[in-house]
Design brief:
Largest interface: A-B, 86 and 96 residues
Number of strands of chain A: 13
Largest sheet of chain A: 9 strands, mixed
Oligomer: heterodimer
Number of helices of chain B: 9
Mean pLDDT of chain A: 93
Distance between the termini of chain A: 58 Å
Helix content of chain B: 25-40%
Shape of chain B: elongated
Number of helices of chain A: 7
Shape of chain A: globular
Strand order of the largest sheet of chain A: 9-8-7-10-6-1-4-5-11
Low-confidence stretches of chain A: none
Largest sheet of chain B: 9 strands, mixed
Chain lengths: 260, 319
């Protein structure tokens, strides 16, 4: 199958993430990497083609120069080629604009069977881009898959909600998002790392996609961030060491706060 | 006064607490109109009236609930076209956010997810507050484009009762082929635990690696407090507790009045799921565990000693 995996280059969650003066996420001050949750999407795509009749896995990203690292990681894992949508006008794009750019890039890639994404980015964490892609591409949406199989042109997933577990089916082509329950992403092998260096990566600008610069970026956003404030760190409360009365002390604290 | 649409979250007509929270928030922005999709309207009606729904748009076509997300987005888009609401509010569940996402594209409206507060905007529209980067930043956003669409985190809005007429308005929808492209072919309801829902519970008690797989003391302490039970990713990955109970970045995000972390070290991924809790308590053997940096009260000790003693003490105090 021809599979497009959408990936995002995000600031490392272990670092001190912050905002720039224009209230957008600071993507330069801290180290970035392939959003951890997107590794499950790359793995799902590779596994499907390895178990099936083969095909091409394309890793697609949008973002600044450094975002090429996210593509590189996907290629090292085993994807066949990369597409990087790189354009100064994209900076500050919200989910609505991002889904427009990604949808146009997917259209330009031609005949595809599946679009796969992770369940959320680890920075904005909205989980809305897959649904927006399905809406924009006019494709069925089968999202939050904890299991995914493709047979006879039909994608079938298991989606675990908080009240029920559902089985959902749709014909290909379709948009799928996968959770961290679906597989165990592989580490790039030495061979994979070497091979990735020779794999093709195309760089596209907005002009290549027929997207006008006025449709993306901070000024095009349908919402406006008025302010970002660093929350004062939670002040550390009392910590006692249990010497036989720790449970009672805990109950007493809860009673003092009217939880008992 | 303009209408504000609220998508009702319910199981066969039993309305979940998030809906009361959304109706309360809706009343700040205009006149709350509930949108009820599925069966069980008669059961839901009183609860919707109790929290101020002036009108209830009722959609019973089974095609809407037999397919994933897309049909409900079409229903709401149709209602947005008819009513030009001041805002559309949905619960911040996976479904709620995905419906909101599609609706935003369809109606060319601004979208905010996981809001912890919603107020009228100064110059029209709505103003929202969100907590981001594992609770380390607070973001205030205004939405003026289209009919602002906001998904609201459970337990964020203090519920207020307000009498509403809950006038029944049956809605007929003509779904597109695309809306019915992803079919729900099987549905297994989760067995009821007898405990509150994790996302809407006022108190959550979670267990982690430190339980060693024995959640008995965690569950008993939770039951003494009438709490929901959660688990860390380590405990879920080890197969000790179901994934649906996982609190954290890749699981459920909770915001209860009280969060108790037992045998959980407090990695960033876990904190992302619980840091907005009002009061945080931890029990952990390791005095250096990062979770202690967040707590209002902590006990360095063995959870197998501390929790049973606390359970007995809580039960005694409750009489």
């Amino acid at each position: 199958m021809n599979i497009v995996v959408c990936v995002k280059y995000v600031p490392d969650a272990q670092s001190d993430r912050s905002f720039k003066a224009d209230n957008t996420t600071d993507r330069e001050a801290v180290d970035g990497l392939l959003s951890e949750l997107d590794e499950y999407a790359v793995e799902a795509a590779l596994a499907l083609n390895e178990a099936g009749d083969g095909g091409e896995v394309t890793v697609l990203t949008m973002g600044p120069e450094d975002a090429a690292d996210a593509i590189k990681k996907g290629l090292q894992m085993g994807a066949d080629k990369g597409v990087h949508v790189l354009d100064d006008a994209i900076a500050g794009s919200d989910a609505v604009a991002s889904s427009l750019v990604l949808a146009e890039a997917i259209k330009k890639l031609g005949e595809i069977d599946l679009v796969i994404t992770g369940l959320a980015s680890t920075d904005a964490a909205m989980s809305v881009v897959p649904a927006m892609l399905a809406e924009r591409l006019g494709l069925p949406q089968v999202t939050f898959a904890s299991e995914l199989t493709v047979e006879g042109g039909t994608a079938r997933i298991r989606r675990d909600g908080d009240t029920a577990s559902e089985t959902i089916e749709a014909s290909l082509p379709a948009v799928v998002s996968v959770t961290d329950q679906i597989n165990e992403p592989r580490y790039p092998s030495f061979k994979g790392i070497m091979a990735a260096k020779k794999k093709p990566v195309e760089t596209w600008g907005l002009g290549d996609l027929g997207v006008d610069a006025s449709q993306v970026g901070l000024d095009a956003a349908w919402t406006k961030v008025e302010s970002v404030e660093q929350r004062p760190p939670r002040s550390k409360g009392e910590v006692v060491t249990d010497e036989g009365e720790g449970g009672k002390a805990l109950a007493e604290f809860l009673a003092s706060r009217k939880f008992v | 006064m303009a209408e504000v649409l609220v998508l009702v979250d319910h199981v066969d007509g039993t309305v979940r607490k998030t809906t009361a929270e959304l109706l309360t928030a809706a009343a700040r922005l205009g006149e709350p109109s509930a949108v009820f999709v599925g069966t069980g309207f008669e059961t839901a009606k009183d609860a919707l009236a109790q929290y101020g729904a002036a009108k209830v748009y009722r959609v019973e076509d089974p095609a809407v609930t037999d397919h994933l997300v897309a049909p409900t987005a079409e229903v709401l888009a149709q209602l947005v076209g008819q009513a030009s609401p001041a805002a559309v509010l949905l619960p911040s569940s996976a479904e709620g956010k995905e419906i909101a996402a599609r609706l935003a594209i369809k109606t060319e409206s601004g979208l905010v997810t996981d809001a912890t507060d919603v107020q009228p905007g100064e110059g029209g529209g709505v103003k929202t507050v969100q907590s981001v980067f594992a609770g380390s930043y607070t973001v205030t956003t205004s939405v003026t484009k289209g009919s602002p669409i906001v998904t609201v985190k459970p337990n964020s809005i203090p519920v207020q009762e307000a009498a509403g007429a809950a006038a029944d308005e049956s809605v007929t929808v003509a779904l597109s082929d695309l809306a019915t492209a992803a079919k729900i072919v099987d549905r297994k309801e989760k067995a009821a635990s007898g405990r509150p829902q994790l996302t809407e519970a006022a108190i959550v008690v979670s267990g982690g690696r430190g339980t060693g797989g024995d959640f008995g003391p965690v569950e008993q302490f939770a039951d003494s407090l009438g709490a929901a039970v959660g688990a860390s990713r380590a405990a879920v990955d080890a197969g000790w507790y179901p994934h649906s109970s996982q609190v954290g970045q890749t699981g459920v995000q909770v915001s209860p009045q009280l969060y108790v972390a037992a045998g959980i070290s407090g990695a960033i991924q876990h904190r992302a799921g619980m840091q907005t809790s009002k009061t945080i308590v931890a029990v952990n053997k390791d005095p250096e565990a990062p979770i202690f940096e967040l707590v209002d009260f902590g006990v360095v000790g063995d959870l197998f000693q501390v929790l049973p003693q606390a359970t007995t003490e809580v039960q005694a105090r409750k009489g």
